[in-house]
Write a structure and sequence with these properties.
Number of helices: 3
Radius of gyration: 43 Å
Distance between the termini: 105 Å
Length: 162
């Protein structure tokens, strides 16, 4: 009986050794495969390794950040320039002198996004033409406006999307 235990022990030990050998071979092959992938990952184009690539990308990100700051400043400048440029225009021709001539007189309103700008009126009759320019600040005239000028100013301030 003592022989039987030794045989069983021997067979079990041999089986465990074979399993350990197969497992260690599997682990060794996986390690080689992982090591090969790591080597190819760490050596890139023109022999650059991952560390150098990351450093270069970091420097590029700093440049992109600086460029982004410049673009934001330019965007703010353009936004302000657009707000203060002429965006609302209204024009009307009319005859201020009933029974004399035609619709040769006109009023032109030019405003920015804040409804500030100018009203230009040309009054024309047979003998003379007079031109008036009146300042507008935030939708209010700094001088007295005629009915026609008030109407054209109202039309200009109601322009959508400007």
């Amino acid at each position: 009986m003592s022989m039987d235990y030794q045989s069983i022990f021997s067979i079990t030990a041999t089986a465990i050794a074979v399993i350990a050998l197969v497992f260690s071979s599997f682990v060794f092959l996986q390690h080689r495969k992982t090591e090969k992938r790591l080597r190819s990952f760490m050596s890139g184009k023109d022999g650059k390794d991952l560390e150098n690539v990351l450093i270069e990308h970091g420097e590029e990100l700093k440049k992109v950040g600086a460029n982004l700051d410049e673009l934001l400043k330019a965007s703010e400048y353009l936004h302000h320039a657009i707000q203060t440029s002429l965006r609302k225009v209204a024009f009307e021709r009319y005859n201020p002198y009933p029974g004399v001539g035609g619709n040769q007189s006109f009023t032109l309103v030019l405003l920015d996004a804040f409804n500030s700008g100018v009203v230009i009126t040309s009054m024309h009759n047979r003998d003379t033409t007079r031109v008036y320019a009146k300042a507008i600040k935030t939708g209010n005239a700094l001088q007295t406006l005629s009915e026609e000028e008030q109407r054209v100013l109202k039309n200009a301030t109601m322009v959508k999307g400007a």
